[in-house]
Known about the structure:
By secondary structure, this protein is α+β, with helices and mostly antiparallel strands. It has 3 domains: 3-180, no CATH class; 204-247; 336-390, no CATH class. The protein has 11 helices and 11 strands. It has a 3-stranded antiparallel β-sheet with strand order 2-1-11. The protein has a 3-stranded antiparallel β-sheet with strand order 4-3-8. α3 packs parallel to α8 (252-272) and α6 (181-199) packs antiparallel against α8. The longest helix has 25 residues, at 292-316. The N and C termini lie far apart (62 Å).
Amino acid sequence: MPRWTRALAAPFRRFGQATVRAITSLPWGSGGGSPSAVSAHSALTLIPVFASVRILADNVAALPLQLFRRDGADRQPVSFVPALFWAPDAAGDLFTWLHKCVLSMALRGNAYGLITQRDPLGFPTMIEWLNPDDVWVDELNPVRPVFYWQGRVVDRADILHIPWVVMPGRVVGLSPVALFAQTIGAGLSVTEYGRSWFHNGGTPPAVLKNSGKTIGPDEAEEISDRLSGRMRSRKPLVIGTDWDFTALSVSPEESQFIESMRLNASQIAAIYGVPPEKVGGDTGGSLTYSTVEMNALDLINSTLRPWLVRLEGAFTRLMPGREFVRFNLDAMLRTSVLDRYNAHGMALAQGWQNRDGVRALENLSPLPPGAGGEIYTIGTTAPAPPAADS
């Protein structure tokens, strides 16, 4: 067995030696709130829920993670990438790893990570996210909670727990799916009603009426087929006298169905704090942003920042004492080349950035030693490098 496989399996082997309680003594299926008729999987079949969770998980997972080291009041970027953020699990994909974490928090209110590998100093280098439905927490003593995974006690030192919204005196975060089961269930019911309504015929697209002659079933069917064929071919239908053709508009039932869907989408968007227009809801006002950059800035400030702060705090606790983790939010603020270069010029002129720092932001290597890349200048450009013969 390869060494990495043995290291990954070590925490799981320890569970075989733990005390196993009777299955009737704990609600093993309640890993983030009380069970409800709406499960996490069924909730995801509702488009506003899926869209809200996707917006959160995609945007958080796509942001670069950066490591810094505190030195008094200063903070310095760390050039190397910790193993935890290079190959965080057996799959070795940081994007998927972060995506799973946010998905667990958004649906079940908690993310539970099992630390499967550590470096020689004891810091985690691999963490596997567990299904929240397989985890139960005995929080009778919230200062020293006991974690169970599939009915077995897990050492607290081997669990990374990141809750979303936590009540005072509790450890486990509130589960949005359980807490808002009625709202999500209402959306599922409306969706099922619409599917059944349209499947069973709904409202006919038009009415063709003849008040001068009684039409039998066979004749009516033939006339209907002829009319449908002409409508599909966009050709006029030549018919006899005394016919009245009326195209039907959206019925009141259809209109109410659409409004119910829009209202439910807006409510779900409010739960997750995402812009309602991005999940099929209504903005409820005329506030709009004229640029993509302003839209991204609004999404960062109103939606993503609390999630990022929670994750940064949890990941920082896994690092050595003076090191801390931050997401690079500049990656979301895509600007034009001209705007970006103008911003770099201001940073150089005001002296709070040097050439090497600007080059790093543009994914360029530092200038050669002595070329002035490390020099900070205020109100002028960096001095030219000395001549080779001086």
